[in-house]
Write a structure and sequence with these properties.
Blueprint (H helix, E strand, L loop, with lengths): L6 E3 L8 E4 L5 H13 L1 E7 L5 H12 L3 E5 L4 E7 L7 E5 L4 H11 L3 E7 L10 H9 L4 E2 L7 E6 L4 E6 L4 H10 L7 E6 L5 H13 L5 E3 L3 E4 L9 E3 L4 H14 L2 E5 L12 H7 L3 E5 L2 E5 L7 E4 L7 H7 L7 E4 L11 H11 L4 E4 L2 E4 L8 E2 L5 H11 L6 E3 L11 H6 L4
Parallel strand pairs: 2-15, 3-14, 6-7, 10-11, 18-19, 22-23
Antiparallel strand pairs: 1-23, 3-5, 4-5, 7-9, 8-9, 11-13, 12-13, 15-17, 16-17, 19-21, 20-21
Helix pairs in contact: 1-2, 1-3, 1-6, 2-3, 3-5, 4-5, 5-6, 7-11, 9-11
């Protein structure tokens, strides 16, 4: 049987868990820090970094561009010798797999170089739009083209002139983050304006925070207009990557639906990561959240309440709430996440299809789902090569007998040892 045909049975918990778990470092912070370390002058050390498909692809691409990137996976450490805004290579073909951060960030990065570059990805990545990022880069003086509006992207690099550009906010906040991070190395000041609604705003706030920590400040007006002064430079540094709040939320959800108590070490509610706000959602459906000096803990209650919630700013957690929603005592409405149709899978369609297979009553909307309390049955979940679909429905399997996950290895994208950590809940 091929890897993609493998099915992993999820065995329900025999009793409510009382467990403390550690999750790996944040993917979003790791890939931002890798990029900024490559642009900085000197050697940066990233501690607590994530080693997963997405970050390994990012590090490999930086090496292909001529940067010195060393790693110690056991210690969770990357060391990067930055080029001070210079790209060492004058030609490279970069492969980003299905890593949105890697693809979008690398396209912007190579525009600072001198030479010819290609950024490509997996079959799914070749379906994910990137034209709006290229439009903005061209306004800043780049020569970048994509025949299909998706990768592959071809860049004839001669640095960025600077100036002003408008960037659409409705498809991916990664477009704006990519522009912000490379802007200090343009030949003149850069001004960016967001057109339309900006999705996933916490990720842009995260980008600005990491830029500050590496020594660059941005004038921002309510995450709508940004000015990056020419001449600023990133400074090499030691950087500690926070545990991944997106990974942690699966364990918090597990506590909520099982009536157990799960603590995640190393996280605070003051985290840079927007997905920490999933805890607010869990409190609204009846869970209790406690915080210690270096941990967060969720205790489930006897019932899961219904909710009507806009999850635009924490959309990576939306499939998980949808997966557990049939267990609630009242309807669950999830709104504001239409953009997740363009991620690793069409997540809105995929989640709706799998919920129906489980026997749930679900209505697919343009921007989310409406899910009724339902008596559900076990089934094999198709994951569409999407790590978030796999992990979301694995949480449901802790309560519902007979759930199996097809292609469980897809979780390597962001959380390679997810299933080993999930087993810790049985301890």
């Amino acid at each position: 049987m091929s890897e993609r045909e493998d099915v992993l049975p999820i065995v329900p918990l025999e009793r409510p868990p009382r467990a403390s778990v550690r999750v790996p470092g944040s993917k979003s912070l790791t890939n931002r820090a890798l990029l900024l370390a490559a642009l900085a002058t000197g050697r940066s050390v990233l501690e607590g970094a994530l080693f997963s498909d997405d970050t390994i692809l990012m590090a490999r691409a930086l090496r292909d561009l001529g940067f010195e990137v060393s790693e110690d996976r056991g210690a969770g450490r990357f060391e990067v010798v930055g080029g001070g805004g210079e790209i060492p290579a004058t030609a490279a073909r970069l492969y980003a797999g299905n890593a949105g951060t890697a693809a979008r960030f690398l396209v912007a990065l190579v525009c600072l170089g001198r030479g010819r570059f290609e950024v490509d990805g997996s079959e799914r990545m070749r379906q994910r739009p990137i034209g709006e990022l290229l439009d903005a880069l061209r306004r800043l003086g780049a020569r970048a083209a994509s025949p299909t509006g998706c990768p592959p992207v071809y860049v004839e690099a001669h640095g960025l002139a600077g100036g002003s550009a408008r960037v659409a906010g409705r498809t991916s906040s990664q477009f704006l983050s990519a522009l912000l991070m490379v802007a200090p190395y343009a030949r003149a000041d850069v001004e960016l304006e967001v057109v339309g609604d900006l999705i996933a705003k916490p990720y842009v706030a995260m980008t600005l925070a990491v830029m500050r920590e590496f020594g660059v400040s941005v004038e921002a007006e309510e995450l709508r207009r940004f000015r990056i002064a020419h001449g600023q430079r990133y400074r090499a540094r030691a950087y500690a990557v926070e545990p991944d709040a997106s990974s942690a939320h699966y364990f918090f959800a597990a506590a909520a639906i099982t009536g157990g108590c799960v603590r995640v070490e190393g996280l605070r509610r003051s985290s840079l990561q927007g997905d920490i706000r999933f805890l607010d959602v869990l409190e609204r459906v009846g869970a209790v959240v406690r915080e210690g000096p270096d941990w967060l803990e969720v205790r489930g209650s006897e019932r899961l309440d219904g909710i009507d919630v806009d999850m635009n700013e924490i959309s990576d957690t939306a499939p998980t709430l949808a997966a557990i929603a049939p267990l609630a005592a009242a309807p669950v409405r999830i709104r504001g996440v239409g953009h997740i149709r363009h991620q690793e899978s069409n997540r809105i369609a995929a989640v709706a299809a799998e919920l129906r297979k489980l026997g749930a009553r679900v209505r697919e909307r343009d921007d989310g789902w409406e899910i009724e309390p339902s008596r559900i049955r076990g089934t094999v979940i198709d994951t569409y090569g999407d790590h978030r679909i796999a992990m979301a429905f694995s949480v449901l399997g802790l309560r519902v007998p007979g759930v199996g996950i097809r292609d469980p290895a897809c979780v390597r994208k962001t959380f390679p040892d997810f299933y080993e950590r999930l087993e810790e809940l049985r301890g």
